[in-house]
Amino acid sequence: MARKKISTTIYITPEQNDLLKALNQKTKVPVAEYIRQGIDLVLEKYKSQLPGQATFDELGSK
């Protein structure tokens, strides 16, 4: 079953838009899917900054 998605507004540069549209035309993958994947990459990169993501070092010092 597909997960429910919410609508939001983002602002991208004209260059990002052009490249995403070109990628979409070549792959037929929706631009929104590429944006979701980009968000997932950022969340993974900064997961240590998210609430409830204590590291082992932090746990040992408490």
Description:
This protein has 62 residues and is an all-alpha fold. It has three helices and no strands.
Radius of gyration: 17 Å
Whole-number average pLDDT?
Answer: 89
Distance from N terminus to C terminus (CA atoms, Å) equals: 41 Å
The string of secondary-structure elements, in order, is HHH
Summarize the structure.
It contains three helices and no strands. The chain has 62 residues and is mainly α.
Features:
55% helix, 62 residues, mainly alpha, single chain
Q: Secondary structure elements and their pairing?
A:
Blueprint: H1 14-27, H2 31-45, H3 56-60
